[in-house]
Write a structure and sequence with these properties.
The chain is mainly β. The protein has one domain. The protein has two helices and 14 strands. A hairpin with a 2-residue loop joins strand 11 and strand 12.
Amino acid sequence: MRNPNQNPGMLPAGLYYVGDLCYLPKDIIGDWTKLCEHFHPDNKPEQSGVFTDENGTKFANFSTFYGDGLFCDGDEDVYYVDSGSIGCYPIESREQVENCDGQVVAYDEEFDCEYIEDGTIRFGFIEIYTGYNDSEGDWIEIVEEDAENIETEASEVSQ
């Protein structure tokens, strides 16, 4: 399991950016390096899950199964990942993140955030599969508009 020290939990209703948090502007998340201290604390194992930052903002972040890449959710929305993780961070408006790779999602009520052993990262009703395994060991094709088709070899997931 990729996130052995996960801290699943709940986030309050609201408008959220879902994607790689490294793409968020500094005026939203502050210093990216400082935020990463939650996930990579000194002299402690890597952490994933729900956190509260220095400003009291509650957010979630989970490592993907294989690190960086291009991942899709059940609605075929695409998530680019360059930090090896996908997060869910509250925002005030869509305009704040219009140039960020990721999705804007409105949650009408409190929602749970968790990492599932097969590589699925779940933020309420959004499920992003990061394991590339289709359970048959076949190739999975990820298609995005205005981009080349990317094929990745499915890997066997240890059970």
